[in-house]
Amino acid sequence: MGQWKTKRKARGALLIGIALLLAVGGGSASASGTGEFHVGAFQQPMAKPVDYNTNANWSNIANAYLDRMVSIETSGNVTYNKAENENGIANSYSNDVQLFVTDSGLYNFQSYTPSDYATLESRLAPYKADSRVSGISFKDEPMGWHIEGYANTIRRAKAFAPQLDAYINLTPSFAEDHLQPKPGRLALSNSGAQQSGTYVTSSQSLGQTVKIPAGMNVLHGVDLKIDMRQWSSSETITLKLWNSTAKTSLIAQKSLTGNGSADEYWFYPYFEFKTTTSPGAAVTPGATYYLELTHNGGGDNSVGWVTHSTSNLYADGTAYKGGVAQAYDLFFRLYNERENTRDILSSGNVDGDYVSNTTRLGQTFTTPATVNRRIHYIQLNMDAGQWSSGNQPITLTLWDSPARTKKIASSDTYTSSNNGNYPLFKLYYPVQPNTSYYFEITSSSATPLGWVTKGTTSTYAGGQGYKNGTALASGIDYYFKVVFGSWYENTIDDLLEISGSDELMFDNYPFLGGTGFDGSYFQNAELIRERGLAHDVRYGGFLQSTKIANSDGSYVKYRGTNLSEKRFNVYTYLTYGFKNMYWFTYWQPKPVLGWNEYFSETPVALDGTLQPGYYDIQTLNREMSNLGGTLKDLTSQAVYHSGSTIPKATLSIPATFFVQPADPAQPLIEGYFTNGSGRKYVMLTNRDYVNSRTVSFNFNPKPASLTEISKTTGLEVGTGFTYNSATGVLTITLDKGEGRLFALPTA
User: Where is the signal peptide (predicted)?
Assistant: First the structure.
């Protein structure tokens, strides 16, 4: 059945006890072939109120070339335990399909304390003892502020029962506003301190002594857990870092105001000690410092709860209330700087210029040597009040230099500010470290917009400002901030570094209602590929196989997909090196009433009836299964696009690349891979899911021969295409959304 599965040695950072010391690298790595390739799906046959986990239904799963199944539906307060899923466990095993079991005692389980870990191990013990069980489903689409708790659970589960794989699935990047990871990198955590709380007022400060972990020389920031509902916008609280409880030397401080929100998103305020001149507060490893929280007396002069434990949970410090030591500890987390995302900031803001259709403003900058992330956005300081009509477009373009000889990327065009006086021009584009670039803002409006602030002297040594292509006098710089790495990428890094997981999964469904297509689809594929390779893990995503609409069908969120659209979804992801390919969904889920979501056109109906979509995924799964014998051992080296336009955040085919489409206007994707011996492979994919096309590719240097990995047998074949070794020209026909995998001769 093509189940390409070989256990890998577990990865992972060592995080011990409640105070979690992270000792993980932040550099880029090139992932090797993993030896695994999986075709899976959500969800397994329902077990309540009728148990559909019959051998016949699991035989249909195996006959669909699925080697993994995830989860029983958990919505509607339905609970499951091992006994209730016995038929699912037994019949998945007998049909050679791996099952990620859902157990209500394990799903949604977050771990922080020794007590949590003991409970986790107790609940895992029956599965650890059952060789039929392959894995546990812990969480689908966690919120960012819970990532640490789920990652701790996965890390501990893998240590306790190494034979069990762990399933967790992330949302796509457009949901990053509900992730809220911290700009710093977690170094020390006392997140288990969540049993009680108290209030900070102008007459009652709260404090905590903390011991700086080994290897930490800069404290980028600290977060606490504070109930924002009792913290109004007229109240300011300040976190101060002192040398000791004697408070003889104030090292750093940060003040924040509240917003009264009931959304837990806001309950973890981040007090950032980073400044324009420093990556954070200088600290000494092994030394003890005092964190003090004070209130300015505004509002009702009371903010809380400020969350704490009910016992001495943290061995290296204690909480203080009104300067008096307590028998408990505050919830706190200390953060390092993320070395691979060090921002660039020029602070000049005492003068300014206007941008219009006759005035373009720009700035050169130099990327840090440590960067291995994309530019997330470039931020300027400009008066939003003079850019507010809603029809005054401004675009930021990234160039190689002020000469503008090579256009690298462009932001969306904004007709008013998206962030007050500090608009964000998002790029999501990769750049090289220690390299000079030039960005420029332009407008088609005749109305002067801005103003865009600048200094009166040079405020940034790595570049300078330009107006209409001419350098500003005296090396003057505009105010700007270049931010590398998004919240989304931070979330992925946090999950993988803390959990030690060797898999990265996410979902993103591109086929919207009607004929719509999600423009972030390839951006997400790019980001997942990059973070997967950087962490040397197997990465993958969910494929769309269902229609989701409201109860009366008047609103369709996602349309049902035809075979060509499913094929596009499959082969674009394979071209990006995805090795976990899961369908959402296999078995029809029950409606999600709270979200008014109803599912239809699924491969299998609620009662187990096979529907047309079953035969679509069966066909594609068979192809993936046959290709998987080769793909499992390949490492993605590059992904490039061609066409009259290419999708946002993707890379065009370099002129020096060894495979060039004869017609660069064709909408194609080229995926370049190598195996462990260095042999080269290319997947050539039609980015068009409406039209098939016959296309030619020029290889340089010219291989003596080419072979294709057969989707029918998985073997290398020399038929079904035309290749001229004298000219190096390959001609193939690609079906709608199809990709084909070719191997170059062994060197």
Answer: 1-31
